[in-house]
Each structure stands twice: as C-alpha cells, then as structure tokens.
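Morning. Coffee machine broken again, so started the prediction first thing and wrote up yesterday's gels while waiting. Chain of 254 residues, entered below exactly as on the submission form.
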Amino acid sequence: MLAANFAAVVLAHVPRAAAWLVQEGGAVGWDPISLWHQMGIVAKAVVVILFIMSGWSIGVMIDRAMAYNAARKQSRAFAPAVAGALRDGRIDEAIKVAERNKKSHLAKVVTAGLMEFKAHQDSPGAIPGETIEASKRALERTEAIVHAELKRGLGGLATIGSTAPFVGLFGTVMGILNAFKGISEQKATGLGAVAGGISEALVTTAFGLLVAIPAVMMFNYLTGRVEAFDVEMDNSSSELIDYFLKRRDVAARR
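Came back before lunch.
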C-alpha cells in the first residue's frame, strides 16, 4: 500500500518535472536543421569537413568495388581461354585474349610476360635462359604496377577511417567549451546554458564515428581483396614461368 502511494505521488510529479526541464532548458530542437542552426562556426566547419571526408570515402568505396568486380569477372573469363591457347602453343592468340580483357589483373600480368617472351624469341641469337629471366622480370614489374593500381585510394580511405573520430572529437571539445561559455555568460547552470554546446558535442562526435566506422570496415575488406588478387597474380606468374621452362625443354630436345 505504501509503495503504491509512493508510485502515485511520483507519477503525479513527472509532468511537472518535465515541464520544469523544458522551461529551464529552453526549446532545444533535435532535428538536423535545428541542430545546424544552433551550432557555432567551428562546429559547422567540423561537420562540413566530415561531410567532405564522407563523400570522398564513399567515392573510393564505389570506385574500388566496381574495379574489383570487373577484374574478377574478366579474370574468370580470361583464365580458361588463355590456358587453352597456351596449351596448344598459340602465344599470339593468348596475347589477343589478354588484350580483350584489359580490366583483368591476371590479363595485365600475363600479357607482359608473354610479350617479353615473344620479343626475345623473335630476336636472333637469343639465349633461352635469358629469355625466361627477362620474362620473369617483366612479370614482377607488372605485378608491382597492377598492385599499386588496385590499392589506389585505399590509403585515403585508411586516413579517413583513422582521423574522422579525432575531427569529431575536436568538435566535441569545442562544443563543451561553448557550453561552459554559455554558463559563464548567462550566469546560470541550467539546461538552457549548456544545451547548445552539448548538442554540438553530440552531433560532431556521432558524425565523426558515422564517417570512420564504414571507412575502416571497407578498408579492411578491400585490402583483403587486394591481397587475394596478389596471390592470384603470383600464382599466374609462377605458372607462366613453368610454361616457359617446359617450352625450353621441348625445344632443347628437338
């Protein structure tokens, strides 16, 4: 009975307490437009910077996803076609197949090795050992170039993922400073004195995390795909060198 009476008294005073908080704190809007108008110059600058960082990171994500999907799709069509051409000893046909799949990371590497091998084979007096070594160096150079192309933009994505929380934290600090400034100017400690500054701190912190979390997740995912492409290029280079060695052995027997 006593607990019931106490609960009734508390519930009766809740509306009054809520009204006092609104009166004390003032009408603080929490929709994006109201929050934007309540922000100071520094907080607005922080939000604009974070918005630019977010747009940049989204652009990199879309660009890399499209490039990787195209490379994967063309490589799946390229691998069996070039394997069949090389099995029959048709190097020219294999080069043409590779040139038709220019977005494939495997095609770029294999083309470099085949063209280097063919150039040395067509040269009079070429030494087979030097031919294979030259092809191997061409494969290594092309692998490095393709790896750099695949990683284009990922450095910026990592930078955004690591710095966006700190940019948001800077806005948080400035919001808290504005809250103390409001207390000092109004000579009051109610919610109205600190609501604007706290809202700045909350918005910039949340926006910083909203920018950083997807950037870090996508950076890790895209880096994993690049590493998988590197393994595929290494395997293709090794298989191509083995093919050249077999051709040299066949030519030596003749």
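The longest helix spans residues 191-253. Going to sketch it on the whiteboard this afternoon.
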